[in-house]
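Duplicate of #3305? Posting structure anyway:
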């Protein structure tokens, strides 16, 4: 699956014959449930879900992008660039060669990247940020975002640019003149989305074609960040006053409002697929969904900071995410997972019983929920599979504060 792109300033597996014991395909693993996945406590005393990291700067950080699990970059005001080569354990400053505020960062690999910012600033690196070189954007208007993953596109105040392969950039043709800025962009091979304060989202049939245009009516709210799962055919856009809209591709794009549980301005959204997402915003607000924001909704988390949070990113791992924000804030979220026991049933019918066991964390589990092969969600911690073949089980627990752990997947094959 193509990973959905984060807003980085733009910016989760596995037999029984009658009368024989159950045999599981090799690869089943045991996990530990994080009951306080979103980090809250009914008494306000749980361990935080987010861990603060030392950025080495007090500048506001506006964007974050990881090329892989180890290599990440964050950019911010006054030309600040900080980088990690060990998954965020330590961060070090890089010299960007500019004092302009940098609003977006993009890395296609651990060596090649771009940062964009105020006054049309673009700086590029081919050595992981050891050296940054200014490039000609062809504009003096602010550039607010650059796609982190997929084709490189930079957007801003009336601008949609792509690199020419040298030191220059060119305006994408056919882009309608927007009434205001485009503060976020996400791209796949030949499709992309960008959004702006007026609530208009665009898509495209290609970087240099005339395929750009509105893919929805105005959503009636200032938008700040869009993300899309190109493989899954869905995504989200967030904005002012706690606005969250889920997007669906049903031949054309539809957007449906979801309750976020806040009136804070939301600045970033990142999803690993069409199920697992984080949103972040002003005042240290963070919220997560493990169920696509519909069943179970969005669950407010404890970030441990009151700083405005500006961007969030997943990589390819639904258990790890990063957030950056004002005052040099960098946070990492890391989840544990669920413990599932698969037991054999010797009734001679090829049954496989699965016990879902929630270990106690800061708060006890209130419910465990599961479904098989995309069917309806069920409540309970015991299920029995009877039909031969491979069944795909999804499951998660909810603690007494109503917080959801991440949705887990288990595949079980029964052979009669």
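Output from current build:
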């Amino acid at each position: 699956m193509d990973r959905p792109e984060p807003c980085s300033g733009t910016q989760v597996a596995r037999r029984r014959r009658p009368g024989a014991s159950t045999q599981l395909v090799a690869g089943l693993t045991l996990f530990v449930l994080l009951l306080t996945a979103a980090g809250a406590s009914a008494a306000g005393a749980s361990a935080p879900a987010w861990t603060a990291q030392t950025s080495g700067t007090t500048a506001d950080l506006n964007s974050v992008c990881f090329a892989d699990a180890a290599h990440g970059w964050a950019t911010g005001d006054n030309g600040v660039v900080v980088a990690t080569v060990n998954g965020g354990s330590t961060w070090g400053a890089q010299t960007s060669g500019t004092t302009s505020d940098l609003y977006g960062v993009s890395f296609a690999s651990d060596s090649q990247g771009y940062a964009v910012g105020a006054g049309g600033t673009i700086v590029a690196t081919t050595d992981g940020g050891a050296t940054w070189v200014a490039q000609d954007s062809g504009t003096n208007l602010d550039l607010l975002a650059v796609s982190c993953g997929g084709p490189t596109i930079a957007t801003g105040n009336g601008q949609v640019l792509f690199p020419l392969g040298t030191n220059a950039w060119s305006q994408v043709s056919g882009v309608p003149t927007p009434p205001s800025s485009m503060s976020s962009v996400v791209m796949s091979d030949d499709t992309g989305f960008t959004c702006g304060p007026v609530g208009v989202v665009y898509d495209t049939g290609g970087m240099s074609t005339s395929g750009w245009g509105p893919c929805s009516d105005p959503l009636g709210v200032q938008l700040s960040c869009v993300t899309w799962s190109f493989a899954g055919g869905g995504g989200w856009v967030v904005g002012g006053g706690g606005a969250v809209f889920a997007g669906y591709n049903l031949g054309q794009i539809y957007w449906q409002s979801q309750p976020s549980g806040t009136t804070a301005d939301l600045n970033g959204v990142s999803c690993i697929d069409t199920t697992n997402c984080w949103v972040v915003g002003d005042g240290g607000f963070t919220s997560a969904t493990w169920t696509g924001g519909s069943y179970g909704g969005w669950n407010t988390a404890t970030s441990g900071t009151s700083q405005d949070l500006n961007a969030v990113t997943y990589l390819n791992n639904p258990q790890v995410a990063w957030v950056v924000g004002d005052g040099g804030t960098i946070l990492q979220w890391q989840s544990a997972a669920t413990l599932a026991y698969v037991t054999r049933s010797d009734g001679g019918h090829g049954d496989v019983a699965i016990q879902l066991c929630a270990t106690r964390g800061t708060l006890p589990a209130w419910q465990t929920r599961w479904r098989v092969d995309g069917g309806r969600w069920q409540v309970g911690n015991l299920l029995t599979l009877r039909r031969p073949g491979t069944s795909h089980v999804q499951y998660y627990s909810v603690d007494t504060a109503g917080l959801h752990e991440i949705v887990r997947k288990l595949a079980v094959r029964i052979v009669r």
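Confirmed duplicate; merging threads. Residues 50-334 form a domain with the Methylamine Dehydrogenase; Chain H fold (CATH 2.130.10.10). Residues 1-48 have pLDDT under 50 and may be disordered.
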